[in-house]
């Protein structure tokens, strides 16, 4: 479950916030484009949107299997990107070493 509190600066009290909404939804039911993996090594799944922004798009009947289909594909895409970046960095370091440690730059 994911719980989101929407709030704004209070119009009546100086240092307070007014709750605008509370949304509760099963994490696995959020729209596919909501999920983003930034650093899978630490288990960070971030959201591209607030729950409130995608409230009308939530798939309340999505099964865990359907969620894992989405999540596994996101993970595979993430690891392929990380792998490609790592291979470029390795090549940069090897070139630096082979060049007598004189010129270092990351290959883009």
Describe this structure in words.
- By secondary structure, the protein is of the alpha+beta class.
- The chain has a domain at 2-75.
- Helices cover 32% and strands 24% of the residues.
- The protein contains one helix and four strands; from the N terminus they run ββββα.
- A two-stranded antiparallel sheet has the order 1-2. A two-stranded antiparallel sheet has the order 3-4.
- The chain is elongated.
- The mean pLDDT is 88.
Brief description of this entry?
By secondary structure, the chain is α+β, with helices and mostly antiparallel strands. It has one helix at residues 64-98, and strands spanning 2-9, 17-25, 35-39, 44-47.
Chain-wise SSE layout:
Blueprint: E1 2-9, E2 17-25, E3 35-39, E4 44-47, H1 64-98
Secondary-structure element series: EEEEH
Query: Strand-residue fraction?
Result: 15-25%
Distance between the termini: 39 Å
Poorly predicted spans: none
**Total of DSSP H or I helical runs spanning 4+ residues:** 1
The biggest sheet, with number of strands, parallel, antiparallel or mixed sense and barrel status, is: 2 strands, antiparallel
Mean pLDDT comes to 88
Shape estimate:
elongated
Rg over CA atoms, rounded to whole Å, is: 21 Å
Q: Within the largest sheet, what's the order of strands?
A: 1-2
Q: What is the share of helical residues?
A: 25-40%
Q: How many strand units?
A: 4
Structural category is alpha+beta
């Amino acid at each position: 479950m994911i719980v989101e509190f929407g709030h704004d600066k209070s119009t009546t009290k100086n240092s307070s916030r007014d709750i605008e909404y509370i949304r509760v939804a099963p994490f696995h039911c959020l729209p596919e484009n909501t999920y983003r993996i930034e650093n899978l090594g630490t288990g960070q799944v971030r959201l591209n949107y607030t729950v409130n922004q995608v409230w009308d798009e939530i798939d309340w009947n999505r099964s865990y299997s359907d969620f894992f289909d989405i999540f596994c594909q996101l993970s595979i895409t993430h690891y392929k990107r990380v792998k490609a970046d790592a291979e470029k960095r390795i090549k940069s370091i090897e070139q630096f070493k082979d060049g007598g440690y004189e010129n270092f730059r990351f290959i883009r």
